[in-house]
Amino acid sequence: MSDPVGERLRSYYQSIQGDASTRLEARVARALDSTPAPLPARAPWRPAFGLAIVGVAILIVALAVRELVPAPTPSPSAVTGPSASPASSSSPQPTATQEPTASPTPVQPTPTPAQTSTATPSSFPTPTALTSHFDVRGSLTVGRDGPTATLLEDGRVLIAGGKVAHGLVSAPTASAELYNPSTGKFSATGSMAAARWGHTATLLQDGRVLIAGGADLSDGADNLRSAELYDPSTGKFAPTGSMAVGRADQTATLLADGRVLIAGGTNSIGLDSAEIYDPATGTFSATGSMTTARQGHTATLLKNGLVLIAGGTANGKVGPFGPLASAELYNPAIGQFTATGSMAEQRAGPTAALLEDGRVLVSGGVDQGSPAFSSAELYDPTTGQFSATGSRQNAFLSFTATLLPDGRVLEVGRTVSAAATTAELYDPTSGKFSSGGTTNRVLDCDTATLLADGSVLLVGGATNGPNGTQPLATAVLYRP
């Protein structure tokens, strides 16, 4: 088969006069695997002339190759950045098993209008090899087991209480700190009046945070009745009214009218009582009691204004003991709880997430015969019934559930084997879970806070070490 490039080169070289053509023909012949003629002795002026001719030859070869070989056309999937077409943003996100060089640039969720006032953290460059989606980001000022995390109106996150290391054991703390997404750093803020663990934290409509109940472990089994308000404008806590009974492991739900429902919990025994906090008066008042005593349950404000209470553990003076499958609804208009459909599984310590269509995803938890569930159920307010949905690939001992801006639910937890912390994503459209990446950082995932840029801040938990259980200070950002 003829060689067009070689033929052009030979023709050109034959047109060049003098000994330079002989040397060039020898060099080209070696490149074309032919035997060159011996080179004559060089004159003193010829090297510079020969180098010039070689440069011309290289240019001609490059032009010939460019004419004969077409330039590659970029694949549409390789287009990134602001000029990318809308279709490219709907391509599947990379999984943990894909090579980084084959992954498209992760598409950040579009912030909601309420989130646009907070700037995307400039100190957080998007990782280039984000195959696991987990991004370790500094440390808390102190390791905390069981703190609360509350997203403030200015985009910062209040981390309050929990247990901290105290020698070889852990003890509740009154300290608190703030996470600033714009700097990616934690800093101390005012301390609470009481050390608390197992308390609740609720963002009120005026921007303050209600801290209620919890255990300080100072007086045996009795838990705290007191409550405090954190003011972000001053960075300080101030006392407010106290509850009628001490509670830990209760739920706190912001109602549509701005009041807060405090339900259940434990104080030596499980509690079925509930109270309402009114920010206008700074006081608690009794409301109707639940149909059964519960602690470690879920409480979800539905779009119709009712509150769904599901699962938990019963530990009352009378009645059942152990994980519960039952659920009930609280009606703020009449201050009463009524039973609703029950789950298929008894679930102690499950999570709940309100979906965009108004249904509630209740997932995981434990019962008396299983260390942890991977199954999940959906509650439909229109029918008052639970139905089965897809199961997670992993069973989690400790985990969180976060509704993402795209409507999916992110669940992050520590696997039963405690070998890793894993993320899974629930898609309400398909009713299935998919892998969301894994990190070798063992996190208990006490709290998960959705930030304005669509990432999720994970803090809190403890790990077993040679010196006993130690609270974790590691902070991790998960980028969906």
Protein architecture, described:
- This protein is mainly β.
- It folds into 2 domains: 4-68, no CATH class; 119-478, Neuraminidase.
- It has 4 helices and 35 strands.
- The chain has helices at residues 4-14, 19-31, 46-68, 86-89; strands spanning 134-144, 148-151, 157-160, 163-166, 169-172, 176-180, 185-189, 200-203, 209-212, 227-231, 236-240, 251-254, 260-263, 266-267, 269-270, 274-278, 283-287, 298-301, 307-310, 313-315, 321-323, 327-331, 336-340, 351-354, 360-363, 376-380, 385-389, 396-403, 409-415, 421-427, 432-439, 447-450, 456-459, 462-465, 468-478.
- The strands form 10 sheets. Strands 1, 32, 33, 34 and 35 form a 5-stranded antiparallel beta sheet that branches. A 4-stranded antiparallel beta sheet has the order 2-3-6-7, with no helix packed on it.
- A hairpin with a 5-residue loop joins strand 28 (396-403) and strand 29.
- Helix 1 packs antiparallel against helix 2.
- The chain is globular.
- The two termini are 55 Å apart.
CATH superfamily of the largest domain: Kelch-type beta propeller
Q: Low-confidence stretches at least 5 residues in length (pLDDT < 50)?
A: 1-6, 9-49, 64-131
What is the third-level CATH name, the topology of the largest domain?
A: Neuraminidase
Helix segment tally: 4
Helix content: 10-25%
Structural class given helices, strands, pairing?
Answer: mainly beta
Please report the total strand number as a whole number.
Answer: 35
CATH architecture descriptor text of the largest domain: 6 Propeller
Percentage of β-strand residues: 35-45%
Regarding CATH, which class of the largest domain? Mainly Beta
Mean pLDDT: 78
Largest β-sheet summary: 5 strands, antiparallel
Terminal CA distance: 55 Å
Overall domain count: 2
Tell me the overall shape: globular
